[in-house]
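Bumping my old thread because nobody answered last time. Still need a sequence for this structure:
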């Protein structure tokens, strides 16, 4: 059998073969050198202000309160050696204040945080400043003083970052913060009145050695349930004449003339209640002082309040012009604003 002769490629086939693209070799890509990441080192007590519950702040304002990276290094430095709070037993709570401040050339109403420190200067306090919360607002007829735990609040120990792993250092802490375990996510399951109560909360403090403003007050809040519309007013039993006061309300068409006598009786009853409450408060204060131990007296006499505002940084508004010593109606004014 004859072997077939090998056919030579034509010129056309040779041309086509030569034009075919050859497979390129993959170039070796050198891996980039890993870039070292640098994280700003956290200060030892950087989260202290955030851990203190901002009592009385509306729930929908929390995100606005934390929208800036506020710097409370002044509060942190107060606990360092040589600082105002160094080595002292301190109880802290937060609050917030809507303030008109300047930020990046623009005036804005900002929710400004502040932290109040209760410091016992002379003694190791045998008790926290208070275990109660006051609930009050313009809309509520009566003030409530309730245990903190009823509003899921309590004083809890705070541990600086460097001490959180050490059981020994944790036992030595002298810093306590007001904490609240009510979760925002669970608010939808609560009644509206319960949710609003949190917004009307004020840290309560009773100073037996200082006469309460209510003990000195001669004014009563009047909310008279009239048939047409409620009458809202303040009556001062020392300076206001009831007959003249009522006639003016009728002239201003705030009160119907046929309800004059009912209104006057209502005011008289409120005045009696207020006078009785003032008298009982004075008697209770006097009795509390008489029954107080010397240690407790020393604690009350030594307590000081400091109110801390955030320090200015490039990333936060300047609050230096809106700092105020007033804390709330129970605490009164801070001894010092920082």
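Sorry it took so long. Here it is:
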């Amino acid at each position: 059998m004859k072997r077939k002769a090998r056919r030579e490629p034509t010129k056309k086939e040779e041309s086509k073969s030569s034009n075919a693209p050859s497979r390129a070799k993959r170039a070796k890509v050198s891996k980039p050198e890993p870039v070292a990441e640098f994280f700003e080192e956290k200060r030892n007590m950087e989260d202290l202000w955030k851990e203190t519950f901002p009592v009385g702040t509306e729930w929908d304002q929390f995100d606005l309160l934390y929208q800036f990276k506020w710097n409370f290094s002044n509060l942190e430095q107060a606990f360092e050696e040589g600082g105002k709070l160094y080595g002292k037993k301190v109880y802290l709570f937060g609050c917030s204040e809507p303030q008109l401040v300047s930020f990046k050339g623009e005036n804005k109403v900002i929710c400004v945080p502040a932290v109040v420190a209760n410091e016992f200067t002379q003694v190791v306090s045998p008790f926290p400043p208070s275990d109660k919360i006051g609930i009050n607002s313009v809309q509520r007829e009566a003030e409530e003083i309730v245990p903190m735990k009823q509003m899921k609040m309590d004083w809890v120990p705070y541990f600086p970052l460097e001490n959180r792993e050490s059981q020994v250092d944790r036992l030595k802490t002298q810093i306590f913060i007001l904490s609240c375990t009510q979760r925002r996510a669970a608010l939808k399951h609560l009644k509206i009145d319960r949710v609003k109560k949190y917004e009307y909360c004020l840290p309560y403090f009773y100073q037996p050695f200082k006469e309460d403003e209510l003990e000195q007050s001669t004014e009563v809040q009047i909310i008279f349930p009239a048939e047409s519309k409620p009458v809202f007013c303040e009556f001062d039993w020392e300076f206001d004449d009831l007959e003249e006061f009522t006639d003016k309300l009728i002239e201003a068409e705030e009160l119907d003339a046929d309800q004059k006598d009912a209104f006057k009786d209502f005011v008289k009853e409120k005045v009696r209640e207020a006078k009785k409450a003032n008298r009982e408060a004075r008697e209770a204060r006097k009795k509390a002082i008489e029954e107080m131990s010397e240690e407790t007296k020393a604690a009350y006499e030594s307590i000081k309040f400091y109110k801390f505002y955030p320090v200015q940084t490039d990333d936060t508004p300047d609050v230096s012009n809106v700092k105020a010593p007033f804390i709330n109606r129970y605490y009164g004014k801070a001894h010092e604003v920082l």
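The CA atoms of residues 44 and 161 lie 5 Å apart. Let me know if any region looks off to you.
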